[in-house]
Amino acid sequence: MDELIEKAARIILESKLTIALTGAGISVESGIPDFRSKGGLWDRFDPEEYATIYAFTKTPEKVWLMLKEMEETVDNAKPNEAHIGLSELERLGLLQTVITQNIDNLHQEAGSRDVIEYHGNSRSLTCLRCNRKYDYKEKKGEYPPKCECGKILKPDVIFFGEAIPVKAMARSSQLASTCQALLIIGTSAVVSPFNILPRQAKQAGSKIIEINLEKTVLTGHITDIFLQGKASEQVSHVVSAVKELRDL
Ligand code: APR
């Protein structure tokens, strides 16, 4: 067994409260491009023009061009071994909560029950004029989707410039400051306030296990164990090691 994988597995087995923080990188192997890697979404859509709440209120039709592309990619996506591995750890009682920046619902589809959607989700839409809510299935295939009042609907995802849902933020902060082990998977950790959570956990004495294709701003000073590689492979290795050591 790889030494780093074994160390990560032992940390998880000894921890009384473990959480996972995930970003777009965990879903890349499900066919959903991330944002900041080469060829990522922000290579094709300038976030200033497509991903701020200001852009949405000013040019909703334009923003829906990007949202439509994202929706079609997400619709075809299935959970990969990384999502499934985290739901397995939850089933074994070794992972309490996944706090995700992703809006693809793949953690839930993989079987994770305690998921905090830090940047909202794309399963429902809201009218910014009359506040009516719709399930995304009601408006499937309608681009841009419109409210009965005629206004173009906004998906319940958090755009830049919007506040993080209060409950998600409060519970995430509480978990980060009380966890003993934190897995952080597939995120560049450059977006605030999500990127405060690993620092909060570190300050509270938690062990930080980072899984990423490449080093990030966290590696080297926040991260205790850096498992470099694809999320599906590294998570699977950690879960197998946990099971092996647990049954010894
Ligand atoms: N396995 C592991 N890590 C991967 C993989 C993979 N297969 N593919 C990519 N990564 C890593 C990249 O190296 C990068 O560090 O995942 C990270 C993805 O970073 P971003 O594209 O910045 O995505 P994320 O961190 O989730 O962005 C945060 O920014 O644009 C906003 O709201 C959006 O929620 C998003 C937030």
DSSP helix fraction: 25-40%
Structural class: alpha/beta
Top CATH class of the largest domain: Alpha Beta
Number of domains: 2
**Low-confidence parts lasting 5 or more residues at pLDDT below 50?**
none
What proportion strand?
15-25%
| Average of pLDDT | 97
Biggest sheet statistics:
6 strands, parallel
Distance between the termini: 14 Å
Oligomeric description of these chains: single chain
Overall morphology = elongated
| H/E element sequence | HEHHHHHEHEEEEHEHEEH
Bound molecules: adenosine-5-diphosphoribose
Which labels suit this protein?
alpha/beta, SIR2/SIRT2 'Small Domain', 37% helix, three-stranded antiparallel sheet, six-stranded parallel sheet, 10 helices, Rossmann fold, 248 residues
Give a concise summary.
With 248 residues, the chain is of the alpha/beta class. It has helices at residues 3-14, 41-44, 47-50, 53-58, 60-75, 81-91, 106-109, 166-176, 196-203, 231-246; strands at 18-22, 97-100, 115-117, 120-126, 133-135, 154-157, 181-185, 207-212, 225-228.
Topology readout:
Blueprint: H1 3-14, E1 18-22, H2 41-44, H3 47-50, H4 53-58, H5 60-75, H6 81-91, E2 97-100, H7 106-109, E3 115-117, E4 120-126, E5 133-135, E6 154-157, H8 166-176, E7 181-185, H9 196-203, E8 207-212, E9 225-228, H10 231-246
Parallel strand pairs: 1-2, 1-7, 2-3, 7-8, 8-9
Antiparallel strand pairs: 4-5, 4-6
Helix pairs in contact: 1-10, 6-10, 8-9
The structure holds adenosine-5-diphosphoribose (APR).
